Amino acid sequence: MSASVISRSVAFVRVACRGGVALAGVLAALVAQAQPYPTPPAPAAPRPLAVQPPVEQKLPNGLRIVLAERRGVRLVTAQLLVLSGSEADPDKLSGLATLTATLLTKGTRKHNATALATAAEALGGSLDSGAGWNQTGVSITVAEPLLDPALALVAEAAMQPSFAQAELDRARIQALDELKVAYAQPGTVASRAANRVLYGAAAYGHPASGTPESLQRITRDDLVTLHRTRFRPDNAVLVLAGDIDAAGARRLAAKHFGSWKAPAQRLAAVSTVVPDSLTTPVTVIDMPSSGQAAAVLVVPAPPGNTERAVGQITNTVLGGGYSSRINQEIRIKRGLSYGAGSRLDARRQAGALLASVQTKNESAAEVVGLLQVEFDRLIATPVPDDELAARKATLIGAFSRSVETTAGLAGAVSSLVVIGVSPDDLGKRIDALGAVSAADVQRYATTYLAAPKRRVVVAGDAAKFGAAMKSLAPAAPAIRLEALDLENGAGLTR
Fold first, then answer.
1. Percent of the chain with pLDDT over 90
2. Is 28 in the same domain as 82?
3. Whole-angstrom Cα distance, residue 360 to residue 281?
4. What pTM did the predictor assign?
5. Residue 405: inside a domain, yes or no?
6. Tens-place pLDDT, residues 170-221
7. Quick one: residue 134, left, alpha or beta (phi over 0 = left, psi -120 to 50 = alpha)?
8. Is residue 427 part of a domain?
9. Same domain, 13 and 145
């Protein structure tokens, strides 16, 4: 509303209320005065990203330093990345990298877990650690004058963890409790099984958080061995984002990480991480006590350093966000789910695009069919210009907002480092996304989303959807939840 309309509306409310007019009538009159907008405004042109190109340096021991300057904000985010993660879990020890990362901040040779957390809090920060595919990290965000002692804590956690047995036991119990909750949720079960179906026995196929059996097998010696072999300066990157210059970044990196010694032997490569999909196109996991069903359709995608912009746009059109095709078709038009979408999981050596829906058991087969239709539509018909423009705006806007903070900026740089892309790509992201055409999306869909490459996993009460699912996939095997074995890359069962 304009200022004059607002002024008249306020005056009207005052008079109406004094005259005893009902509130509903007052509100109706206000709505009538408001200017109608029958169509939403067109997306504005993308604003240029105000981020300086990251500066990369290297210490004599092989540690890379990547700095993304953000002047004027007296904060710095520091993240020490080791470029090994869950893909390095040994056979039958799924979850080892995740447990190792958890314990990095649960005590060192100098401080126990409480003392370490207290030291970080005294700097106004929080020392965090975690692992993923091809990465394990320790990070903190502090005011720029406190970066020196903050980096001392990051180095201590990454280089001198104690792996106390009591902390391992506590972390194991917490992880097992989380798995109990996860295995009761059809969406989580279907997603983890779909990951194994896609990658088969390859290193990317096992569950990064472990299984109830694998977590029980892990010992302190396993953590120590993984840390000794993978945590080395020539396999690590220090990412800094914030109000610091290149000279200061190198000086502090040398002070806190310069004594870190690289072993003489070369780091052993992790083998067989490329997709090796199981042949069954549809898998059913029977969860008789489940009140809902979850369906996941997964296809192999290129690694993170290949066709990044086209893959991101394709995923956003398909299922990335409320206005995406999958959510529009399944939730908004048919009311079959509270949320339906897709995500692109582009790892360093391979990738996956997963579309997922949670629905009532009786609708499981129907939503699988709708997912197939949306994949087919992307292949058969170019995305209309207005839809493509709107989805680009969504993705570009989300990216631009994400790098407004030092933590978001460090995260964006780290994601590039992990997948093996030059940090300079950060400043090119918006232009690359804007250059994607409808023809690019259709070609990507034709190449990677074709029907023979699709694998479907449905988890839920099979008694309520089994007959309908048989009509879609007569040979689909049904696996009881208690027989599911996500460590088995050859067939999902014990």
1. 79
2. no
3. 22
4. 0.87
5. no
6. 999 999 999 999 999 999 999 999 999 999 989 999 999 999 999 999 999 9
7. left
8. no
9. no
Q: Is residue 415 part of a domain?
A: no
- Residue of 449, 471, 453 whose CA lies nearest to 284: 471
State the amino acid at position 309 in one-letter form. A
Q: Quick: pLDDT tens for 85-144.
A: 999 999 999 999 999 999 999 999 999 999 999 999 999 999 999 999 999 999 999 999
Range of the domain at 457: 282-396+432-483
Using DSSP's 3-state secondary structure scheme, residue 296 falls into strand
Pairing outcome for strands 478-480 and 282-286: parallel
User: CA of 454: how far to CAs of 19, 144, 341, 464, in Å?
Assistant: 67, 49, 16, 24
385-402 and 406-418 helices, crossing angle to 10°:
110
In a shared domain, residues 461 and 350: yes
* 213 and 342 share one domain: no
Strand order in the sheet with 282-286: 340-346, 351-360, 292-301, 455-460, 282-286, 478-480
Closest CA to 378 of 301, 297, 315, 287: 315
Position 17 scores a pLDDT of: 52
Question: Is the domain of 28 the same as that of 114?
Answer: no
- How much is the pLDDT for 278? 78
**Would you state the pLDDT for residue 303?**
94
296 with 183, same domain: the answer is no
Q: What count of other Cβ atoms lies within 10 Å of the Cβ of residue 92?
A: 13
- How many other C-beta atoms are found inside a 10 Å radius of the C-beta of residue 340? 27
| pLDDT over 50 (residue 1) | no
Give the integer Cα–Cα distance in Å for 30 and 237: 58
Name the residue with higher pLDDT: 64 or 28.
Answer: 64
> Structural domain tally of the chain?
3
Confidence check: pLDDT of 311 > 60:
yes
Cross-sheet strand order for the sheet of 75-82 = 55-58, 64-69, 236-242, 75-82, 135-143, 128-132
Residue 423 falls inside a structural domain: no
Q: What is the CATH number of the domain that holds 190?
A: 3.30.830.10
Specify the DSSP class assigned to residue 265. Answer: S
